[in-house]
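User: Please predict the structure of the protein below. I'd like the answer in structure-token form so I can feed it into my own downstream comparison script.

Assistant: Understood. Taking the following sequence of 267 residues as input:
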Amino acid sequence: MPQGVRHALITGSSRGIGRGIALALAAEGVNVAVHYYRNEAAAKETLGQVRARGADGFLVRADVTHPAQITEMVQKVKSEFGSLDIFVSNARPEVPEFFQPPLEITLAQWDAAFDSQAKAFLVGARAALSLMGEGGRILAVTYAQGSRTGGLQPWVGMGSAKAALESLVRYLAVAVAKRGITVNAISPGWTDDSVLNTLPEQAQQLIRGWHERGWTPMGRLGTPEDVGNAVALFCSAKARWITGQVIYVDGGASLMNPEVPTEIQIG
């Protein structure tokens, strides 16, 4: 990895999983560009916590569904940091902007999902690469289960967009491998302080109970800190030989067999 202070840009880092990633990297001494779109107060809180961990950074606002704003965001990173070592694509729209089943989803909702995921990752990664040298790290936050299944019908837009994003991870990994830059996707399971908390309370309790009873073998939901720690691991020099992969960070939930009751699986 590059010597000296490293610099990171994390989209959607004002709260939730993005904040967890920002704080984990800050604890490793990485300066962070904290991106937000609507919630400036939350972004300021994240930046304060970054500084409390001994790192530094700044705020940058952009709507990642608009490529021109992504380019402007990276230009601000260039003017503030001069270079970039880590780019994490994490931002997504609020749930009502895309959460509709396939027979009802509007094209605007479909576009909101794809523009914020596959397209935003392509534009952001290419812009970030112009600031990166050997040892750079590019990561995308996905939800691999949702991109491979079809049961949660209103997730169709985001699930399809995440599937495209995961494919792009593999293509980009090959494209930049000779530059010594890795590209990977991190796939959290259900995580507290994330999209879960935007669901109706009854749905939240059903999901929590299901995972605590055994669907997640470790018996709990994930936390933003869990995800952040995994990202920090893949941003270390020891992960330089891992690229083009989708890494599950889910306490083992992806290992479970949906056709068999959890009581039989875990004993």
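That's the full token string. The two ends are 44 Å apart (CA to CA).
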